Amino acid sequence: MSNVISCDICVIGGGSGGLSVAAGASQMGADVVLVEKGKMGGDCLNYGCVPSKALLGAGHAAQHVREAAKFGIDADLKGIDHKAVHDHVHDIIAGIEPHDSVERFEGLGVKVIQEAARFVGPQEIEVGDQRICAKRFVISTGSRARIPAVDGLDEVDYFTNANLFDMQEKPDHLLVLGGGPIGMEMAQAHRQLGCDVTLLDRSSIMPKDDAELVDIVRRNLVQEGVDIKENISVEKVRKEGDNIILTTDQGEVTGTHLLVAAGRQVNVDGLNLEAANVAYDDKGIRVDARLRTSNKKIFAIGDVAGGFQFTHKAGYDAGIVIRNALFRMPAKADYKALPWVTYTAPELATVGLDEEAARKAHGEIRIMRWPFSENDRARAERKTEGLIKVVTNKKGLILGASIVGPSAGELIQVWVLAISQKMKIGAMASMIAPYPTLSEVSKRAAGSFYTPSLFSEKTKKIVRFLLRFG
């Protein structure tokens, strides 16, 4: 090796979590090296959260035009320029790129090396013709689309989230393999942009969310024209002319383009983790509660550490690592209040325990619901398809909440705070919510906890008794 670099912290992976560690540690006085073999910003900026929400934004805009008549507005959707939609998506990416750029991080004092990293020892990696020795390493290499073992799939052209947003023409009929968040969001976006869409899943769509609320999302996508086929097994893929044909256990399904969104696979290839004594499996690098690997000098965060695979989880992990690596604080990750959102219309957001998990953990529970159809703001904007569902123990401790409806991802945040602070339902019920806002669904649901006792015969007797005294 012609060059040996020594540093305090070496971060491998320039996605959300890695960038947060690098920026934070450098600004706190640590000597930091960041190694990224691909694009700065990682999957989220370039192939995931940002472009998918930009594409959904375009689809939702088209759908608003189609539905304008319900407000008394005569509007026609004259056409959709798919090249212009593509340009819109990449314009959004370009606007965020400077925040994650090499130049910005070098300005923060981080040494950035754009090469692949490979461990050659417990505290040493090779990067090109350089060797880096660090007091602590942080692995934040993320994940990629998992490609299922389907006969013939490797013989046809297909999309994953990594190349979907490069498409500039309209897919006449998009086939989507997978009914998780990516599959559902992209199915709706393309349908709203004028494509025929068929989504197939070997089980039920959105299996990690509350089935009662998932049904509302399913119903809305079907009404918009997405053909959802659940509990169906794809056995073979073949190309015939301009068509892609899926052979399933229920017959053949034909389309023109194919998106594979059948889960995620962690990125550990080429890291040579064995040389660093870092244990891992196909679910990710094994970490303890402090996010340390089997080599206590090496941390793993975000998708590559297994478990929840969300950008905000990686950002949270970064804070845990900084406290451990820089301040020697025994900080532990706690995901009890970690929310997740599927950004379909309506959105579906969840935090904490669902009904089934709450019963297993606490036995007797209470469930509160409130429909968006009884919310005046939702009525005014004709977005009444939705429901909030809150779970508490019998004493009112908030255990979980799920919301399906407009702006669910925004509305869930107050419940994230409540669970993280171990609040009881009374705090939410006594909150003053501005009128008219969608946030009133949270207060209404919380208040319904007290309905059985507040309007009981016992309460009526007490009120009648007290009224006798004038």
UniProtKB/TrEMBL annotation:
Cofactor(s) it depends on: FAD
Binding note for cofactor: Binds 1 FAD per subunit.
Annotated PROSITE patterns: PYRIDINE_REDOX_1
InterPro entries in UniProt: FAD/NAD-bd_sf (IPR036188), FAD/NAD-binding_dom (IPR023753), FAD/NAD-linked_Rdtase_dimer_sf (IPR016156), Pyr_nuc-diS_OxRdtase (IPR001100), Pyr_nucl-diS_OxRdtase_dimer (IPR004099), Pyr_OxRdtase_I_AS (IPR012999)
Pyridine nucleotide-disulphide oxidoreductase dimerisation domain location: 339-445
Record Pfam families: Pyr_redox_2, Pyr_redox_dim
Residues that, per the record, bind NAD(+): 178-185, 263
GO molecular function, one term: flavin adenine dinucleotide binding
Presence of keyword Oxidoreductase: yes
Keyword tags: Disulfide bond, FAD, Flavoprotein, NAD, NADP, Nucleotide-binding, Oxidoreductase, Redox-active center
Disulfide bonds: 44-49
Positions annotated to bind FAD: 53, 141-143, 303
FAD/NAD(P)-binding domain mapped to chain residues: 8-316
Gene3D superfamilies, sorted: 3.30.390.30, FAD/NAD(P)-binding domain
Domain of life per record: Bacteria
Cross-referenced PANTHER family: MERCURIC REDUCTASE
Family, per entry: Belongs to the class-I pyridine nucleotide-disulfide oxidoreductase family.
Protein name, per record: Pyridine nucleotide-disulfide oxidoreductase dimerization region
Organism: Candidatus Terasakiella magnetica
Lineage per the UniProt record: Bacteria, Pseudomonadati, Pseudomonadota, Alphaproteobacteria, Rhodospirillales
